[in-house]
Amino acid sequence: MTDASAVGGLYAITDTDGHRGNALMSVVREVLEGGAAVLQYRDKSSDHGRRRQEAAALLALCRQYGALFVVNDDVELAAAIDAPAVHLGRDDDDPAQARVRLGSQVVIGVSCYGSLERADHQAAAGADYLAFGSVFPSPTKPEAVPVPLATLTAAAERYRQPVVAIGGITPDNAGLVVTAGVDAVAVISGVFAAPDPRLAAARIAGLFHSGTPGGA
């Protein structure tokens, strides 16, 4: 059986448009030092060689910091580097198919957008955690439909699986999301585009320990 208990707190998602190679490794280290508990490698390019090299290097770095490493949207890449987790979107394999390919120990997360119905289906299919968003307007996915905080609260009460919020979350608004009851907040530009990624990560990660909205 999988253990999704590591899915909690700050869930950082790489910005490979802004950082690649050594720059990516450097900024990810800062974010991990700031307290990220989960790191997702998200790269939509077709450069398979570079993606595999970066993913393997980030997996090793996450092991150093005790963070869960997640591969976004690519079951085969996850299998190739023996990643402990994969995240699936609307157009990817369903959790049951991914489970066959990756085995029983891999953590499988899914995007549910704003749909509890989709989350019901994905949970029944074996998803280990459920992601909802966009909570706020997102520079990464500007076309995303907003998800009310009330939906996050309903999801947190409804599912045994960890609930992750994503979309436009920053150190300044993350407190509202944490208060809604989610297990983790997924952040891209809110940490990777911050002037001080380590500090931004620490402000968000600290919300899960202090329970203080605002993270100042």
Description of the molecule:
The chain is an alpha/beta fold and 216 residues long. 41% of the residues lie in helices and 17% in strands. Helix 1 runs parallel beside helix 2 (48-65). The protein starts with 8 loop residues before the first strand and ends in a 6-residue tail after the last helix.
Output the radius of gyration: 16 Å
Structural class: alpha/beta
- The CATH architecture term is Alpha-Beta Barrel
Low-confidence stretches: 212-216
Number of domains: 1
CATH superfamily: Aldolase class I
* N- to C-terminal distance: 38 Å
- Strand percentage lies at 15-25%
Widest β-sheet, arrangement of strands: 1-2-3-4-5-6-7-8
What best-fitting shape do the alpha-carbon axes yield? globular
Give the topology string: H per helix, E per strand. Answer: EHEHEHEHEHEHEHEHH
CATH class: Alpha Beta
- Please tally the helical runs, counting DSSP H or I stretches of 4 or more residues: 9
CATH topology descriptor: TIM Barrel
- Helix share bin: 40-55%
The total count of strands amounts to: 8
